[in-house]
Amino acid sequence: MSLNELSAKVDLTLSNLSILKTGKAKAIRFSTLESICKVLECQPGDILEYQDEEKKHV
Amino acid sequence: MNAKQILEILKVLSWIVFIGLCIKTGAMFISFFVSLFINADGASDLYMGLNLSELLAFNQGQYVVMAGLIIFLSGLKAYLFYQVIRIISKLNMANPFNEDIANLIAKLSGISLQIGITAIIINMYAKWLLKQVHFVYEGGGTEFLYLAGILFVIAVIFKRGMEIQAENDLTV
User: Which residue from B minimizes the CA distance to A16?
Assistant: First the structure.
């Protein structure tokens, strides 16, 4: 699925999706997470991953 | 009356005050120039009854310093209102917390502080001169020190607002 298709289905702007994709997002609303999971038919754990900030820089 | 209308009214008022202060500063400067080089009687009415003729007769150097400080103070006030006009012109209510506005508010605080300090210097100088020669000087302007403090607090809050807005902009 392309970003354009996802943007239309999730009702999120391309710029916001780009912010998510590039990892610049500071926070995500539960409603947004719910919409994405609904469209992609997945769980939040499938699309979210925790990374230790210190290990990321190393 | 919504915020936009109030801002427009404030902008018009700021322009009126700014132009008034420019006229005051210009008129004082011209009277000062005339009193020094053309006709000493100019010192008896520098602007709206400001009479420093006795000071000029007493000592020209002290007169130049005193009048110069008063003109400088008036010019600073005009500059302050010019910055207020810039803030109101740049303000965008859809996205108000930006760096330009934050810097302008900080600048306003700095200018107010300068005005307050200059006013204190003038008042102290006038007090010292009054021991030697009689002239009328109303003083005032020290309230700008309080304004500087208030603006500084507002600038700090504004910077925090910027951080919160940036975070909000990066919330999807």
Answer: B172
Q: Where are the domains of chain B?
A: 3-169
Q: What is the pLDDT of residues B26-39, one digit of tens each?
A: 999 999 999 988 88
Instruction: Compute CA distances B131 → B58, B125, B166, whole Å.
Output: 12, 10, 57
Q: Tens of pLDDT along B49-77?
A: 888 888 888 889 999 999 999 999 999 99
**Domains contained in chain A, CATH given:** 3-57 (1.10.260)
Residues of chain A with C-beta less than 8 angstroms from the C-beta of B171:
25-29
Contacts of B170 in chain A (CB under 8 A): 19, 24-27
